[in-house]
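Hi team,

Filling in the usual template for the complex we talked about on Friday. All components are listed, including any nucleic acid strands or ligand strings, so the model treats them as one assembly.

SUBMITTER: L.P.
PURPOSE: interface mapping
COMPONENTS: three
RESIDUES: 1099
SEQUENCES:
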Amino acid sequence: MTTTLTTRKLPPSTHPFADVVHRLEAGGSMLPDTPENLMQIIGLYKAYAVPMDFYWRDLLYIAEQVFVDPLPFFKFIIPEEYLKLANHYAGDNADLRIWRGQATAHPELLEFMEKGELKRKLPRILHHLWHDRINMEFAEECMRAMLWHRDMGGLLDPYMDSEEYKQNADRAIRAYCQGNPLLMGLYKLFPDMFLELCRQATMYSVLGLFWEVMAPVFFEISDLYDEGKITSVPEAMNFLVNGIFAIAGRPIYHRVRIRGEWYDIVPKSKGFTWLYEAAFPYVEAVFYRTSPFRGTKSYNAQANEVPTNQLDFHYGILYADKFPVGTAGIPPTLLHQDMYHFLPQYLVEYYRKHCRGEEDMLIQLGVSFQRSMYNVTSAVIQAGRAAFLYPLDDPNPRHLMMNRRYFEGQLNRFTRPEYGIREAARLAYIQDQNYR
Amino acid sequence: MLSALIVLPILGSLLLFLGLGGRKLAVALAGIPLVILLLLFANFDLQAGGLQWVQRWDWIPSIGLSYSLGLDGLSLLMVALNGLLTLIAVLTAEPEVKRPNLFYGCILLMSGSVNGAFVAQNLLLFFLFYELVLIPIYLLISIWGSPKRDYAAIKFLIYTAVSAIFLLGAFLALYWLGDPHSFELAEIRIASLRPAAQTLLLLALIVAFGIKMPLVPFHTWLPDAYGESSPPVAMLLGGVLSKLGTYGLFRFGLQLFPQAWADLGGILAWWGAIAVLSGALAAIAQKDIKRMVAYSSIGHMGYILLGMAAATPISLTGAMVQMVSHGLILALLFDLVGLVERKVGTRDLNVLNGLLNPLRGLPTVSALLILGGMASAGIPGLVGFVAEFLIFQGSYQDFPLPTLISICGTGLTAVYFVILLNRTCFGRLDNRTAYYPRVHGWERIPGLILTALIVWFGIQPMNLVKWPQPLAFTLSTQVAQAQTLILASAGNLAPVTLSGADPGNWETSRN
Amino acid sequence: MPDIVDIAVSAEGFSTLVTAVKAANLVDTLKSPGPFTVFAPTDAAFAKLPPGTITTLVQNIPQLTRILCYHVVPGRLKKADLAKYQSVGSVEGSPIDLTIEGDVFEVNNATVIQADIEADNGIIHVIDTVILMRPHWFWPIMNSALAASARG
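RESULT (copied from the run log):
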C-alpha cells in the first residue's frame, strides 16, 4: 500500500541500490523478504541471544568489579551472582514487561557452561583453557571498537573527557587501590593509564547495558517466529524498531562496586540514554567500522589500503568477508563458534543441505549472521527515519523526498569507491539467496 | 622375479582389456608388483654391486634378440618408482573415469613395459619395451585429457618416433661396428671404435634420450603432453616415462661410452645448466599451474644431466637420487594440481585464490602443495634437497660455473613456486564463486603417501642413497679411467692410478 | 500575563506534556523569568510514539528531563526571529533544525501547528510531533553525495 503511495508521489530512485531504496521506502528491510531469509535471520537471533546473555552479564561484571585491575586473569570467569542478576527488561519484575524471557541466565546457556561442547562436567578452568566456553574475545573486540572510534554522537563521549568524569574516576580508582600499596604506587606513577582503563571499564558497562536489552529482544523474536507470529522479514524488522523505541530512554551509566560500596563513575542522573549513548555508537562502531582483523585485510598503509580517517573504517559485519571464518586470529570466528553451539535445529538441517554441510557450517552461519545484521541495521535506519524524519505514508512529497535523501545517504555508505569500500560491502551479495 | 615385474602388469592389463574387473581390480593389480619390489629390496646384495637376478633366454638368436634381464641399483630404484607411481596413478584416477577398463589396462600395460625396459640387458629387448610403452601412453593421452589432447598426443608421438629412429640407428651401429656383433649389453665392446665414431654414436643416443627426458631444445612436446593429459597420466609421463630417457643415458650413454662421455662432459654440464635456467624461466612465465609444473620438470632434468656430466661418484649418486626425487615430487604436484582443477574447475593462476582457507578452501591440498613446492625448490629436510645437494656437491669441482648457474636455477624454482603458492593458496576466496566441493578422504591418500616418502627420504637420505651408490662409483671410475687414458695418450700427463677404490669413499678424485 | 506552564495547563490537549513536565520537576524552571521558547508537543504528538517509550522515560527522570529540555530554547524567539536561523541550540545542548519558508514552519520533523503564543516568560510554538535530538552524523548522511563512479 505504501509502495503505491510513494511511487505515485516520487519519481523512481536513480541510486545504484534503487531496489533497496524503494524497498526501504515501502517499509521493508535491506534484506529481501523471503521465507529463507526470515528463517536464517531468526535462527541467528536465537543463536546470538544465548551467548549474548553471557556477554552482557560478564561485561557488567568486568565493568563493575574487575574495573581497572591491570592483570585481569579471571575476568571471563563470571561469578554466580552475575548469572543470577535480574535483567531489567525480562522476568516478572522487569521495568518494562514486553518480552517474555526469564530474568536470570538462559537455561541453554547454563547447560552449556556446565558441560560445554565436550558434554562433560569438568572444572570451569579446564573448559576455559580448552576454549570450550563462551568466548568473550568478540565482545571485547566490540567494546574496544566503541572505545576507540570516538565521537559517534551522544553526550557520553565528551563526558568521558570532562573534569567531572575524571574526579569520579579518581575517587573510584583510589578506593579500588586502597590497601594495596603496589597498585596505589602504580596509579601514582601512571594515572593516565588507569584513567584510560576506567574509560574502558565504562565502555564495558555501556556495551553490557546495551546487550542486556538486546538479549531478551532476540529471544522474544525467536519465540514469536516459532509460534508463527512473525512471518516476514519486515515484520521481524518492525519488531526490532518497536523495541528500539520502547527502550530508547533506558539510562546508560557506569558504577563500580568496591568492598560492597557503589561508586558512580557515570551517574544515571546525567541523562544518558540507551539510544543515543549506546545503540547508535554501537551500530556505527561495530556494524560499520571496527578495525581490520589480521589476515582479512591488508595493512599496507603506504598503498593507502588503510583509511587515514577513522570515519572511513569499514571492517564491520556489513563489510565482512565471511569466508575466512575459521582462520586463526579472526575474532568473529570465536563469535561464530559461540553461535554454532546454539543454532536451532531447523538451521542445522538447512546448513547440512548446502555447501559442505557440517564442515563449513561456521561460514554458512556467518553469512546468515551477516544477513541478520543487515536486518538489524535496517531496523536502526528505519528507527532513525521515524525519529528524525517522517512517516513512510506522509502525504507531503517534500517530506518523502527527505526520507529518500536519508535512505540514499545511508546506502551511499555501501557504494563509496575509496579503500575498496564498495567491493567490501555485502549489500549486493545478500540480495542473492545463493550467497551462503 | 624380474619377469614377474613385467608379466604380471601386462597380464593384468589383458584381464582388464577383456572386460574383467574395474577400479578395485586395477588397484589390486597395481599393488601386487609392490610385494615383489619389497622382496627385491630385501634380497638386494649391496655388497656385491653389479647386476643381480641375471637371467637370459635366447629369443630370436638370428637377429641377436635375447630375453636377457638383470637388475642393479639404478634399475632397482627405477622399477620401484614405476611400481609406486603406477599404484598412485591408479588411486589418483577419478572413480568415474570413462572406459575404466581400457584406462587402467593401458596404465598397467605401460607399467609392465617400462619395467621391462628398466631391467632389459639386451639392446633390442630394451628397444622393444621402449616402443611398446608408446601404444598405451598414446591412448592415455589422446582418450583421457583436456580438450587439446589429440594435438598433444600426436605431437608426442612424432617426437618419440624421431627418438626411436635415433635410438635404433645407434643400436644397429653398435651392433655392426662392435666386436663381437651383439645386442647383449654385457658383451658389447667399443674399444675398437674410433673416438669420432664413439662421439657420434653417443650424440645420437643423447638426442634419442634427450627427446624422451626431455632436454632443451627437444622439450616442446612436453608442456602440451603434460598439460593436456589427465593427472594420473601426467604423473606417469613426468614421473616414470621421462626416467626412460635419463635411465637410457646412464645405461647406454655413460656406461657404454665412458671415453666419449668424458670428452663431452663440459658441453653436457653447460647443457644441463641451460636446461635448468630455461625450464625455470619458462615456468615463471606460465599462467596455468599444470603447465608451470610441467616446465619445472624440464629444469629438474637439467640437474640430472649436470650430475651425469660431472660423473663423480657423488654427482652420479645425486643424479640417480634426483631421478627418484623428481618422480615423487612431480607426481605429488600433478596429483595436487589435478585435485585443484577437479574441485575449482580451473588451472588459471589469475583465477585461483585463497585455497588455504580452512573451511571453504582446500586446506590439506594447499598445505601439501606448499610442501611439494618446497621439496621441488630443494628445501632441506625434503628429498629434493638431498638430490640437488649431492649433484652440486659432486659437480662443483669439475664444472663450477654450470653448477653455480644451476644453483641459481633452484632459486628460480623457488620464485615460480612462490608465485604459484601465493596466487593459489594465499589471498582470499571470491565470495561469488568459491563454493568448491570438498576433497574426500580417499582423494588425499595418494598425496599423503607421496608426501610421507618425500619427507622420509629427506630426513633419512641414506635409505635412498645407498642403493645406487655402488653403481655410481663403478661408473665414475670407468669415466675417470677413460679420461686418464685420453690425457695420457695426449702426452700431457702421466697416467694416474686411482687410489682408494672404495665405493664408500666420497673423496675419490678423478684427476 | 500567564507563564508558559499556566498556558500549557489551561489549554486543551497538553495533558501529557504537563504530566511529563511535572514528573521531570521542570515546573519551577519553566515558571522562572526565563525567557524561554518552548516547542510544545500536543497529546496527539505524544500518542504517535510507539508504546513503551513514554513508560521507560517516566521511569527514568533524568532521561525524560533531557528529552523535554530538547524542546526548550533559551530566549524569546518568534517565528519571525527564528526565520533568520537554520538551527537553534536547545537547552539540552543539541541543535534544533528549522525550516521556515512562507507558510512552512517546521522544527526538525515536526510541523508547528500554532506559532507565537506569547507567555509572560517566553514564547510557545505548538508542534505535532515529539522532536528527538538529531545526532551529529545526521546531516552528513543526508548530504552525502553518491560518488560519481558509483552511479551508472
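MY TAKE: Confidence is low (pLDDT under 50) at residues 493-511 of chain B. Residues 35 and 221 of chain B are 35 Å apart (CA to CA).

Thanks, L.
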